[in-house]
Design a protein that fits this description.
Elements: H1 2-9, E1 13-14, H2 26-35, H3 44-58, E2 65-68, H4 72-89, E3 92-99, H5 104-111, E4 116-120, H6 130-138, E5 142-149, H7 161-169, E6 175-180, H8 195-200, E7 207-212, E8 225-228, H9 231-238, H10 248-258, H11 261-285, E9 296-300, H12 305-314, E10 317-318, E11 329-333, H13 337-352
Parallel strand pairs: 1-10, 3-4, 3-5, 5-6, 6-7
Antiparallel strand pairs: 2-8, 7-8, 9-11
Helix pairs in contact: 2-10, 3-10, 4-5, 11-13
């Protein structure tokens, strides 16, 4: 299978950006084709329908929802909103993030000249270091925004729900929390509780949750996401978002996929099967991995990680980049079972050659 996939098509297995290898659903494709005749019109109607569906899905009124160009437009707007708030009130503003994590919030902060404090994950289980995250804010005179990806990227693990909830509930008024739940749809651990529930419980006035249709829904290229927060925060963030930021194709594809329960179930089942295959192979090779609650897995390799990445590419497989703050680990997307068979064959070959 390794030879047939890579040598006949000369295409890489793209398992480096946590995309959905299934592609979009057939229902989404059909919806896009049907909507193309109306593409000369602005997407107000389709955008409104998607807003209604997202609000209903999360059990919140529409005034607590903000649609975005992927989730990263909302992340950018949150950073910008607090930057502006700090300037107007003449106080400092900093972004506090665990290290490593998804990098967009950091990049937006840097572009605005906002200081970024990176707090390493705990060294025993690679969870959030709550004490040092809080310490970074306590020692700062001004507004602190905590960007927390949960489950985290690249580690694929969820953090302790009770600890996170208590921290947010008891935080000072100048602390804001941006929870990125891009991989929410893959979580199976019963201990996990979404920040959306905490917003509904009015746990904190300073809590924002962002999600995306890029992962489980298979719509990464169409750029559809959303944010949920209290109405005032949504209004403040929304003032910095672009108008008509959801195009017709993205809107109708997201609506169709939300309604396609069979596809979503298949998407989740495929990932679960791929994860089981990968975990079994890693167990047989004696390679450590973290407990994944996402569509990727973070695992240890023997030898130099960049060399391993290069060797995988030579064998037709693109895997995740190196994360210097956690040396010795690599991230790989959980693709289709057929793709994971190719990966496992490569890993077993690498073991024979002494590369892993």
């Amino acid at each position: 299978m390794h030879n047939s996939i890579n040598n006949n098509t000369n295409e890489l297995l793209r398992l480096d950006f946590n995309e959905n290898s299934l592609g979009m659903s057939a229902s989404a494709k059909e919806a896009i084709l049907t909507a193309l005749d109306g593409a000369a019109r602005y997407p107000d109607k389709q955008r409104a329908k998607l807003m209604t569906k997202v609000a209903a899905l999360n059990g919140v009124p529409e005034k607590q929802v903000l649609l975005g160009n992927g989730s990263i437009e909302s992340i950018r707007a949150v950073v910008q909103m607090l930057h502006d708030k700090a300037l107007k009130t003449e106080v400092g503003f900093q972004l506090v993030i665990p290290d490593p994590t998804f990098g967009c919030a950091e990049l937006y902060a840097i572009s605005l000249g906002v200081p970024v404090v990176k707090v390493p994950l705990t060294r025993d289980d690679y969870d959030l270091d709550y004490d040092n995250l809080q310490k970074a804010a306590t020692e700062f005179d001004g507004i602190s925004l905590f960007y927390l990806c949960n489950p985290n990227n690249p580690t694929a693990i969820i953090t302790a729900t009770d600890t996170l909830k208590a921290w947010i509930k008891n935080a000072p008024k100048n602390h804001y929390f941006l929870l990125d739940e891009a991989y929410f749809g893959y979580v199976t651990d019963p201990s996990f509780e979404s920040g959306v529930e905490w917003i509904k419980q009015e746990l904190s006035d300073n809590l924002i949750v962002v999600r995306t249709f890029s992962k489980l829904f298979g719509l990464a290229g169409l750029r559809v996401g959303y944010a949920i927060a209290n109405p005032q925060l949504i209004a403040d963030i929304g003032s910095l978002m672009s108008t008509d930021n959801i195009n017709i194709s993205g809107a109708v594809a997201a609506i169709a996929t939300l309604e396609d329960e069979a596809f979503l179930a298949h998407s989740l089942q495929t990932t679960n099967q791929a994860r089981q295959m990968m975990e079994t192979a890693l167990d047989e090779l004696g390679l450590r991995y973290l407990p994944s609650q996402t569509n990727f897995i973070f695992y240890e390799v023997n030898g130099d990680v960049q060399t391993y990445i290069n060797k995988m590419r030579e064998h037709g497989i693109a895997v995740g980049r190196e994360f210097p703050s956690i040396p010795g680990f690599n991230r790989i997307t959980l693709g289709t079972p057929e793709e994971m068979t190719v990966v496992i064959d490569a890993l077993q070959l690498f073991r024979k050659k002494g590369w892993v």
